[in-house]
Amino acid sequence: MSNNKTIFIKSINGDFSTNEVLDWIIDFGYNFRRTNEFDLTNWRFKFDLNKIENSFIYDKMDNPFIHAFWYRKGGKAGLNKNVDNNDAIKMFKWFENSEKKTIKEFFYKMFCKKGLNLPPANKVNKLLVLDRAKKIGLNIPRSIVTNDKNQVLEFIQKFRDVILKSISDYSIMYEKESKVFTSYTVKLKKSDLVDYPNLIFPILVQQEIKKIIDIRVFYLGGQCYPMAIFSQNDKQTNLDFRRYNFNKPNRQVPYNLSNKVKIQIVKLMKYFELESGSLDFILSKDNLVYFLEVNPVGQFGMVSYPCNYNLEKKIAQYLIKKLN
Q1: Would you say residue 53 lies in a domain?
Q2: What is the span of the domain harbouring residue 178?
Q3: Residue 13 has what pLDDT?
Q4: pLDDT at 81 over 50
Q5: What CA–CA distance (Å, rounded) separates 100 from 106?
Q6: Is 319's pLDDT higher than 50?
């Protein structure tokens, strides 16, 4: 079976999960176009602002039309190891990126009407998500965002065990001597703040919830696919399971969420107009499920394989339905 409709996919180089979904799209007999870095200097395009239906964008393929769109991944955030210190070059680079950003935002808004993780819905504010999660009845850790050191010290005094997390969904990442360094969730102690002034850079501080397991849930079109991660038996992963122990990986198995939590997840995702995403929870030692955050373009392969959910096929089928 073949179909002349095209699914346009924005991903990044080396994303194995994207490749797996594309294999299913091919197997189902549909066309796709993939771009890893939306570099407009390598794309031929014309946007006719007087008659937008005459606009087009294409590279080596003849079909300029987009019938469904999947925003899988954007560019990698973080520090670049080749940053140029020349102020003039940095200023021109900033201007160039601003011009490209405006064009890309226009492209997404005007031409990507149907699909999965459509911009700007694929970007969420972590603080707004936590606020909404609390309002719909999900448990969240006691949390504050502040730039007042004394408020942080009082928080530590009250809860004793607290953690420091990034406010945004971005992580610092850089490479040095063939090693990659990135940021993780860490514990915060009073002694860490000794040398800081009373007014500090804003931080997100949360009470550390003593947990039994981590729970990763992949959400797709109203369905939840949960997985338990037994991260607590390993000192490397017990605070942040993303500090993977590749020599002795955490045990990962399917998990049964309560219907109440499933309904709350659906409400949360619909509120932010998210058709898919990866949600992180923890099960506390007093048997309560706590919501932590959602990543609209989070990894799903790590849930699909251990739990036999076959999410790659389900995503391909979901995208194909958008063509009709």
Answers
A1: yes
A2: 142-207
A3: 76
A4: no
A5: 10
A6: yes
Amino acid at 87: D
Tokens 């981590």 sit at which residue? Answer: 214
What is the model's pTM?
0.81
- Dihedral angle computed from the Cα positions of residues 106, 108, 113 and 119, in that order, rounded to the nearest 10 degrees: -120
Neighbours of 263 (CB within 10 A): 14
Domain endpoint, select from 91, 121, 151:
121
Let me know whether 102 and 161 are in one domain.
no
Contact 254, 311 (CB under 8 A): no
CB-based contact 249:241 (threshold 8 Å): no
Q: How many residues does the chain have?
A: 324
How large is the average pLDDT for residues 25-32?
89
CA distance 249 to 241: 10
Q: Is residue 300 helix, strand or coil?
A: coil
- The answer to whether residues 308 and 232 belong to one domain is yes
172 vs 239: CA distance, rounded Å: 18
Query: What pLDDT sits at residue 55?
Result: 66
For the chain, give the percent of residues with pLDDT over 70. Answer: 77
Say if residue 98 is in the same domain as residue 62.
yes
